[in-house]
Amino acid sequence: MYKKLRNHFTGVLTGKGLDYGGSLIRPEATGFGAVYFVREMLAEVGEELRGKRLAISGFGNVAWGVALKATQLGARVVALSGPDGYVHVPDGITDEQVAYMLELRASNQDVIRPFAERFRVKYVEGRKPWELPVDIAMPCAIQNEMDEADVKQLIQNGCRLIAEVSNMGCTAQAVTLANRHLLFAPGKAVNAGGVATSGLEMSQNSMRLSWSREEVDARLLHIMRNIHRTCLLHGKMPDGRVDYVKGANVGAFIKVAEAMMAQGIV
C-alpha cells in the first residue's frame, strides 16, 4: 500500500515528476536524514534507536519521512500532530498509517483529526504532542513550534533527545534549555538531508544519471554521518558532552571560510 501511494503522490508532493529528472527519495530525504542523524547521536552515547518512543509534529513530507524511516529502523512513532491537535498511538503507528499520512497531506485539509477518525486512535484537540512521555521529540512542522515550557515538560517526562527537524522549530529559549539538559540537534545539522539530496539531484540531472532508491539513500546516510562527525569534531566539550549547536555552528563557519580562502576572496 505504501509503495502504491508513494508512487501516486510523489509528483503531487514535489511538484514535478521523476520522468523528467530528479532523485528518488527526494520527498522523504529531509525526514530520512533527520532519523539518520538522531541514530548517530544515540550511538555516540551507547544507545539504539530501536524501541525508542518518538513524538512528531506535522504530517507533511518531512514528518512522513521521519515516521517512515524511524518505523523501518524499529522505533515507535507514538504521536503525530496538526494545527488542530495531536493523535496518540501508544504502540507506534503502522505501515498503513504511515502511508495514510501521504493521503492526508494531499487532501490539503491541514488537520490531523481525520487520522484519528479513520484509525480510531486517541485525538487530543488544541494541544501539542510534547506533553506525552517520549524518548525523542522531533518538531517537523513550523518555526517556533516548541517553546521553553514544552522542553520543561519533555524533561519532566523523561525525554532524552530533541531533534529540530523543522527550520528554527524551537524558540531561542527552548534551544538554550534543551542544549543544557538533553541531547539536542539543531535544524541546521539535523534537517540537512533534504538540501543534500537536492545537491545529489542536481548532479544526477546534469550528468544524466539514474540512481536507485537504495543508492540515493546510501549516499544520504553517508552525508548525514559526515555532518554528525563534523558536529563531534567541533562540539566535543571537556567533560565529554557534545554541544551539537556549537559543533554545527563552528563546522559551518569553517566550511565557508575555507571555501572563501580557496577562491581567494580572503
UniProtKB/TrEMBL annotation:
It holds the Pfam family ELFV_dehydrog. Gene3D superfamilies: NAD(P)-binding Rossmann-like Domain (3.40.50.720). Signal peptide: none annotated. GO terms for cellular component: cytosol. The keyword Chaperone does not apply. Residues 23-264 form the Glutamate/phenylalanine/leucine/valine/L-tryptophan dehydrogenase C-terminal domain. One of its GO terms (molecular function) is glutamate dehydrogenase (NADP+) activity. InterPro entries: Glu/Leu/Phe/Val/Trp_DH, Glu/Leu/Phe/Val/Trp_DH_C, Glu_Leu_Phe_Val_DH, NAD(P)-bd_dom_sf, NAD_bind_Glu_DH. Keywords: NAD, Oxidoreductase. GO terms for biological process: glutamate biosynthetic process. PANTHER family: NADP-SPECIFIC GLUTAMATE DEHYDROGENASE 1-RELATED. Belongs to the Glu/Leu/Phe/Val dehydrogenases family. This is Glutamate/leucine/phenylalanine/valine dehydrogenase. It comes from Breznakibacter xylanolyticus.
